[in-house]
Amino acid sequence: MKHEDNALSNREEALLRYVDDRLDADGRATVERWLRDNPDDLLRAHDWRTHTNALHHHYGVLERSEIPTRLLHPINRAPRYGMRIAAGLACVAIGAAAGFYAARTSSEAAAQMASLPRDAAVAHAIYVPEVRHPVEVGADQEAHLVAWLSKRLGAKVNAPQLTPLGFNLVGGRLLPSETGPVAQFMYQDGHGQRLTLYVRTNADGVSETSFRFVQEGKVGVFYWLDDKLGYALSGEVDRNTLLEVARQVYQQLNP
Amino acid sequence: MASKQDIVAEIPRLRRYARALTGDLARADDLVQDTLERALSKWSLWRPGNLRAWLLTIMHNVFVNQWRAAAPLDFPGDDALAEFATRGDQEDTLALRDLDRALQRLSDEHREVLLLVGLESLSYDEVAKVLGVPIGTVMSRLFRARERLRALLGGATPSHLKVVK
Hints:
B: 165 residues
């Protein structure tokens, strides 16, 4: 048995129970009598209490602070009765709305390719207007952000550097999708115009595609597949500006 | 039967514990996220009882299996926690840093027991179940952990009475 696991004396055990308030009145009185004549143990009990209070004082703020949205995702996307069926139907509905009947019947990869710009545009529209919580992890923690998203996607992802084009990294977040976890990076220029880069793992079958463009309402999306990952760059900017940024992203990811 | 909303209600306390355990908020949230995903994958195995203890048991297993191997932080405690504290003045931030450093210098076994009892207010018996060790081990680890923390933080102990390590 390791030294640290050696049994405690009755005195030591009673002292712990006393500090943690796990004694009845008789037990407390016994310990208090002992402490009157034993200043070392009195100091010990005092310090233990002080340190316990310090734990509550310093870490207790987290009990009252807002829960990051990424911690709610595992719960919100967990299946309940019929949820998988509903999700399946939703998938079909989106495919149909986007006019991709053919994709469903041809191949899984094609279906995923089809949903990529649509999903990216929806995620763009949801998070871009956020003022207080546009991202889960800010650009000030870029190394952690990239490591975290790479871990969750199971593939190396990078946040391209778009500062030369006037867009600075705001940060990123993790999102759920039908095909698994998705990374979203957000960029912003000096006028508050935001772009998002949506990155998800790519199904087998299609290794690379050219840039494709689709307009989803106000949001323009350039998207492409590249080896293991699918990318979609979304923004409410003119097509040429978006294309220039998309090219920059592609070049940086394929040096 | 607990619902998923009951799990959501436990998240703030899981974060608090994970933050004290890992010494860093980003790491803590990763640990909480892994714990929640594992809990939901095992949700059908959950039986009415103490939901918090069940979640802490899962977190302990995730921590032991995935996190202990992780490299220690270069600068523990240097995160956004202080920003959350509206009362967080300079002195408070420094005290938090001292506490973080001292906790990170405890062994993982000692830190877990100290926090489960001191911060999470679990009974010794519950801690024994969460960690899967006998209650006598819980109590001896708790005693050693508190003495070590005292030695690291000083406290009110006169110097000639300090625990020598």
